[in-house]
Specification:
By secondary structure, this protein is mainly α. The chain folds into 2 domains: 52 residues, Homeodomain-like (Arc Repressor Mutant, subunit A, Orthogonal Bundle); 147 residues, Tetracycline Repressor, domain 2. It contains 9 helices and no strands. α1 packs across α2, α7 crosses α8 and α8 packs antiparallel against α9. The longest helix has 24 residues. The chain is elongated and about 65 Å long.
């Protein structure tokens, strides 16, 4: 990467950081390019050389958010000896903790707080990869006997998505910043894991 590219990358990072700061303080709907430009010390027209619109800036925050969130499960490997119930419980708590620490990105990822904004296909790609990874994890759990052989992998994967996103949404909307272990809803992570396993868990020895 040359000096020009390095400088552009640094400025882009600064813009994203400033936008995230604005959104964390006042909510995603309060994001304005003028305020972001002021915080990074540039004129608003200059900022358009990096992001052509507020939507493009949201796309980048959304994209980076899903990449970072995806790291929570990137190294997860399922074997016959995996305690799947515990993985689900700890995964829910870790997800809520991540959302607490990355509220601006989480709002864009799990809600649609900005009217008429929808992430572009390139920005949405990491989210699609996260869904695919979840599906692979579920399929692996089924293949080693941790989940019912007659259950549909897509159904189980989609239900997990609802559980995780639902708990995150409850946390962000009602108790932002409260520790995952102490949240009114998130503290029941073990119960959510039990519900999933009681319905889909295999009754046979793996």
């Amino acid at each position: 990467m040359g000096k020009v590219e390095e400088r552009r990358a640094r400025v882009t990072d600064a813009i994203v950081a400033a936008a995230t700061e604005v959104m964390a303080e006042s909510g995603a709907a309060a994001l304005s390019l003028g305020e972001v430009a002021r915080r990074v010390g540039m004129r608003t027209p200059s900022l358009y050389g990096y992001f052509g619109s507020r939507g493009e800036l949201c796309d980048e925050i959304f994209r980076r958010g899903w990449i970072d969130y995806g790291r929570l499960t990137a190294g997860l490997e399922i074997t016959a000896g995996t305690d799947l119930r515990e993985e689900l419980r700890s995964g829910i708590l870790a997800s809520v903790s991540w959302a607490n620490d990355n509220r601006a990105a989480a709002e864009l990822m799990f809600w649609r707080p900005i009217p008429n904004w929808r992430p572009a296909s390139e920005a949405f790609a990491p989210a699609i990869e996260m869904v695919a990874r979840t599906t692979r994890i579920v399929a692996d759990a089924q293949s080693v006997g941790l989940l019912r052989a007659d259950a549909e992998v897509t159904e189980m994967s989609e239900l997990l998505g609802v559980i995780f996103s639902g708990v995150i949404s409850q946390q962000l909307s009602n108790e932002p910043g409260v520790r995952a272990e102490d949240g009114r809803i998130s503290r029941h992570a073990g119960a959510f894991a039990d519900m999933f396993m009681s319905h889909y868990g295999s009754t046979e020895e793996a």
